[in-house]
Amino acid sequence: MSEAKRPIDVAVGILMRPNGDVLLGQRPEGKPYAGYWEFPGGKVEPDESILAALKREFVEELGVEIESAEEWCGVEHVYPHAHVRLHFFISRDWRGEPQSLEGQAFAWQGSVGVTPLLPATIPLLEWLDQLRYAGSGR
Ligand SMILES: Nc1nc2c([nH]c(=O)n2[C@H]2C[C@H](O)[C@@H](COP(=O)(O)OP(=O)(O)OP(=O)(O)O)O2)c(=O)[nH]1
């Protein structure tokens, strides 16, 4: 219990629509940081690949099948409740309309306006804006 905590791997997915909107979800009651907004995802289970965890979480939480996703960036953060290593993926290619299967709120956002956001996710928004709104008009 008292050993230095090793980081927990977390798979996180950013669904991106052709117009650049991204999907955020609100953490449910009973979890650390309940009510905070985040990109959907969750902890990688033992013997599971990060991509497999990502796909599993999206099916469980949203009923969405990710067809392809590219690894975007990694962020480590030490919270009072856990030391996490977040693996962010971007997907523009999924099947199904997101549904709230675990009772959480979801919102498609252009410039992200929902608050509060999980602390480790905040820096990502600026990087994401550079990706979405600079350069290629995709
Ligand atoms: N999904 C997600 N988690 C994030 C983000 N930013 C961030 O710091 N985290 C942290 C919060 C949590 O400590 C951890 C995710 O763990 P979780 O508790 O939500 O995962 P889970 O759904 O597998 O939970 P569990 O009920 O199985 O314990 O990653 C983010 O943008 N999305």
TrEMBL record:
Residues 5-132 form the Nudix hydrolase domain. The keyword Metal-binding applies. The keyword Nucleotidyltransferase does not apply. Its cofactor is Mg(2+). InterPro entries: MutT-like (IPR047127), Nudix_hydrolase (IPR020476), NUDIX_hydrolase-like_dom_sf (IPR015797), NUDIX_hydrolase_CS (IPR020084), NUDIX_hydrolase_dom (IPR000086). Its EC number is 3.6.1.55. It catalyses: 8-oxo-dGTP + H2O = 8-oxo-dGMP + diphosphate + H(+); 8-oxo-GTP + H2O = 8-oxo-GMP + diphosphate + H(+). Keywords: DNA damage, DNA repair, DNA replication, Hydrolase, Magnesium, Metal-binding, Mutator protein. It is an enzyme of class 3 (hydrolase). Transmembrane segments: none annotated. Belongs to the Nudix hydrolase family. This is 8-oxo-dGTP diphosphatase. It comes from Massilia terrae.
